[in-house]
């Protein structure tokens, strides 16, 4: 039983982690593409149109990868989490079906129109199709976040005698207090990823001295989007999310902040430290007193409950993973703000395009926003443990009753092998697009 | 309300089989009949440009099934665990084949990924046929052994095969000789369908020959159809009961036979698209007739202990189903828009025009 849960979780974690490489880029990128296209209509400068079309190509590759890796996600609810699906399908089935129906059709149809239809449609309609692609990809994120928000903080439901959750208030799925901060935080974080991608492609062109005009535009746009988005990720969206966790999942909050013992008065904020699960304390800790209480409640001396306050069975089952994920996310987020501010400063001083150390930094930082986004999701998902539906349905009660751990291990290994190939394909395709550049030679 | 959602999902699933069906079929034809480089190129493009937007329908069907019939979704997806995951792998592998082939311009590289595309298309057609066969035949719901259920009445787990390979045992596997027959029917049908798609979309040099291929495959399909009808009573003791009860259902087998008989005139058809429409009718008729025979059952039980899964005992609450109707209407409008856009964009033959790829 224990290893059944373990392999089911591992497979889901692996496939969703790989999947989420792609949507985080499409969501942010679609907004930047709309910006390029709209600015082209305003300024009539061809370079902005090149940029919009170039990034839509990268978008399209990501979208395809998102579809291929997304189908297994949907299937796995049924294959590996059958009991969960049976009990909650009447509720989260709504939001997932809306995602499948609206977002996919919106995105894939208007993506095709954007790529193939510019000449037929004229510029204004072309902008509109770009906007609809953006709408589709953000709607997709919204429906997924609505699904997740219900699992984090269930609303609008009723539990029947047979244990099934049924929907009683459809609209509450979308007014869930968990949803809006989580959605905005997620979208801003995906914008950070995309801003880094745009900036790093620009930096790459400047460093290899090719497509330099485009390179400058990409760096500038990426940095400006990046500085705004990386701030918004932290304040207000990240802050609001943390407050929600403190309010609705105090056990998860204590674990992610690394608070083992409840202090009498204000709680300190841990910057660095290693959870020691045997002695139930943080080793090698560096912390600042009272800050956490202030950040969470705007009160320096407000008490924050620690993990000692909760029964073992209510605490997340992997505290170190949760703690590290959270600190990696926050740490990286802070670094992004710093780098983006520095880059903005150099941009203002008109030195950014020639200052190689910073261009190299932008180029090499590109994997890190992906890591920050993914660890952010780890925080949400590990923090919700040991529940699938917080406080109501335990993870151990959700797995498929008839699928053995050997089967799941077998399929997990299959996914690992196939996804390695997919990763290769992705790098080849994106690499080729970047190498060809924003103005491919006519042949 | 159950019937409304059943129809919606059945329609979307059928559209998925028609659309992704043609690119599976294209893969099968590619595997066996495309010999020249130019043909290989064009034929793989005839699938490569469209497969991802076709698979959007699978996502929609899955999502709606999850929403409206969660118990069925949970039971079937976990019960058919291995075949479903294998289908997922094949879908991914096929996508790899289609997308990787043009990345490196070397004959060996192209051959490898062409075969990947062809073989996985063939296997997918086989597996989807087998899946339909399994749904028609039913499974050992509750995992009954010696008169006792091993699981809750609506759960099961199917091995890939049972040593008897017989559809009439109480605990059949995924693959038995009945489901294999249905699988072969699916391969032949989709090969015909894919060949018609190639006729519509390309000027490949094998196109004239493909008409003969379609004709021959259609003879095979007719023989297989008669054979499968003659053995259908093995999996469904009263195959005609529903047609007597609801005579309107007779339209589904009629659609099938119109497609099947019309296909024999493939060489006389004025436009290629007519052939494609006929093979779409075969698919539509085949899927819907199978469903109509079973209605309102979704998955029969091969034991006497546990009742079959029906649209009534697997549906979500009445409120959940009705609250989803308004947004589904919006969804349908969107899907129709999508359909029109796709059609406008993809007019004409692939080798006649410049695509962005």
List the uncertain runs of chain B. none
Work out the helicity level of chain B: 55-70%
Q: By helix and strand content of chain B, what is the structural category?
A: mainly alpha
State the separation between the terminal residues of chain B, measured CA to CA: 44 Å
Using the CA coordinates, give the radius of gyration of chain B: 21 Å
Oligomeric state of shown chains: heterodimer
Radius of gyration of chain A: 23 Å
State the total count of DSSP E strands of chain A: 6
Overview of the structural elements:
The complex is a heterodimer of chains A (443) and B (357). With 443 residues, chain A is mainly alpha-helical. Chain A contains 15 helices and 6 strands. In chain A, the strands form 3 sheets. In chain A, strands 1-2 form a two-stranded antiparallel sheet. Chain A has a two-stranded antiparallel ribbon with strand order 3-4. In chain A, strands 5-6 form a two-stranded antiparallel sheet. Chain A is globular. Chain B is mostly helical and 357 residues long. Chain B has a domain of 247 residues: Formate dehydrogenase/DMSO reductase fold (Up-down Bundle). Helix content of chain B is 68%, strand content 3%. The longest helix of chain B is centred in the N-terminal third of the chain and has 32 residues. Classes of the chains: A mainly alpha (443), B mainly alpha (357). At the A-B interface, α3, α4 and α15 of A face α3, α4, α5 and α12 of B.
